Amino acid sequence: MSGRDVLPIVVIGGLLALIPFGVASNTLLNFLVFTLIIAIAAQGWNVLGGYGGQISFGHSAFFGTGAYATAILQVHAGVNAWLAFGLGILAGALVGLAIGALSFRAGLRGSYFALITLAFAEVFRIVANTIPLTGAATGILIKLDARPVNFQFHSRAAFFWIGLVIMLVALIATRALERSRFGAFLVALRENEDAAKALGVDTLRVKLGAITLSAAITGAAGCLYAQYFLYLDPTIAYGVWISVEALLAPIVGGLGTAFGPLIGALTLHGLGNLTSLLVGRVPGIDLVVYGILLVLVIAFAPTGLVGLAHRVRDRMRQRTALSAGAA
Amino acid sequence: MLRAERITKRFGGLTAIDDVTITAPAGRITGLIGPNGAGKTTLFAIVAGFEPPSDGCVLFEDQDITTEATHRRTLRGIARTFQIVQPFGALTVRENIAVGAHLRHRARRDALIRAERIAARVGLAGELDKPAANLTVAGRKRLELGRALATEPKLLLLDEVLAGLNPSEIRDVLPVIRAIRDGGVTILMVEHVMQAVIHLCEHVYVLAEGRLIAEGAPAAVCQDSAVIEAYLGRGAAGRLSAPEPGHA
Fold first, then answer.
1. CATH number of A3-326: 3.30.750, 1.20.58, 1.10.3470, 2.60.40?
2. How many CB atoms sit inside 10 A of residue A240's CB?
3. What is the structure's pLDDT at B243?
4. N or C end of chain A: which has fewer CB within 10 A?
């Protein structure tokens, strides 16, 4: 980890931070905040799925726990919103650690791990749908009181900046991961778990670390969602939709790359919204776009958009080198 | 250095290893040979901690490590290579070896520098930035060796590092293995290539159908009638030593 690693992230963050000054449209800001929430959730998924190769279908468990914890602490315990936000992230991380301990200790891998995470997420949804603490199926409402001390703002731009900061922290954490021993072990166990063990990697510990970090980041996305929309119900917080969003964005953007989830989320939601604008309000049209995009990426750019960009760059370089050689 | 005592391993009704004791004395190359299915790789898996034995114990530097997890054994100084090479395909050669080096070097920079040095030792200096998936078979075998070496082992378990190589590639790797031994690493190797066993090993154990059938210096073991029969079938030793009718 050096200045050269952090600089691009800070520059990109700085440029993105200027957007609200040029754009007054609430619709566009709304779109950007929502996309950022998805991108953060996806950034969390990418730590475990992209770098660690442990594909989860149940990241809604972490998203929803972060969101519900933030809301419940404020509504039922009167905890300050900012503190609740932090505790929400912690709750998400703890749920990650618990699910990881149960499934990794049992040696679940591949599709078995994917299915068990889906099952856990469903259990969370069903429980949230029945118990009074979460407001059951009616959902839970955070009282509107738009003051900064309550983590509520009149302007959407404030949420955009906060979301951006969380995104940048997640990006820097991902870069640090890439440059660390923990990251090297994580990628090694993705590539070949037995070989990693033989080289002294405590694979269980590395997986537990990864799922905890992953759940904390995705949990943060849930906390932000709760503060932004001030309303949750089980199908929002623990719904399959967020699990799918969290895994789709990294796959489209580039698995196991720092910028993959952000690029993936922007592309998916950008195109989805654009189609809605062009075609009009046809229900489910954005999902059709997602489907087509996923098929295209898997068929023509299996390493995602980031991988595609690298390939194009390498080819350009080769061509310049060739023409330079010919001249 | 290593002593595997009275190891028995049963898979259901099948006894893969039956009451086998082997030792690997410090600073030596010890060989483990035998026909296919003799239980050599299983014995390796038990020593490295990938499989628990049904019975018996594994001692390393006089300490009982029978129930210790693989990664803890690696920390003690036991490293293994795999018969079927297991590279981290998407990583470069340098990154592959660095994973091993990280065991004793936390900082990324240190691990990468050590990886370069080790790559030179196993003859991969020119392919540091190549993805491991693009290496030739011989290259991957060298990579297995390099990665294991990067953990700075005291005992190196080599599972058929020469299998699948052509004679000239084998000639190139032999001095590498000898140099590792001369560097103070004890080696226990499973090997089919007899040319290598005879050239490298000081002591050889022969397994057949899960039992230890012979041990001793490689040249002597090759003459042992039990060993010849294990490889070539019952009665083969007698037929070989009998004068051939046409030449009598």
1. 1.10.3470
2. 15
3. 64
4. C
Interchain contact, A195 vs B86, CB within 8 Å: yes
Residues from chain A that touch B90, judged by Cβ atoms under 8 A, are 187, 191
Euclidean distance between CA atoms B21 and B206, whole angstroms = 11
CB pair distance less than 8 Å for A200 and B103 = yes
> Least CB-CB distance to B86: which of A180, A194, A203?
A194
CATH of the domain at B50: 3.40.50.300
Residues 6+ apart with CB under 8 A from B215: B203, B204, B205, B206, B221
* Residue keyed to tokens 């791990």: A113
Give pLDDT, residue B113.
95
H-helix or E-strand spanning residue A297: helix A285-300
Which residues from A are below 8 Å from B99, CB to CB?
184-185, 188, 196, 199, 201
The predicted-structure confidence for B192-246, as pLDDT tens digits, reads as follows 888 788 889 999 999 999 999 999 998 888 888 888 888 877 777 777 777 655 5
Q: How many CB atoms lie within 10 A of CB A288?
A: 13
pTM: 0.89
Cα within 13 Å of Cα(A77), Cβ side: 14
B168-189 residue pLDDT tens: 988 888 999 999 999 999 999 9
ipTM of the complex: 0.86
Q: Which of A188, A200, A203 sits opposite B151 (nearest CB)?
A: A200
Number of domains making up chain B:
1
Residues in chain A: 327
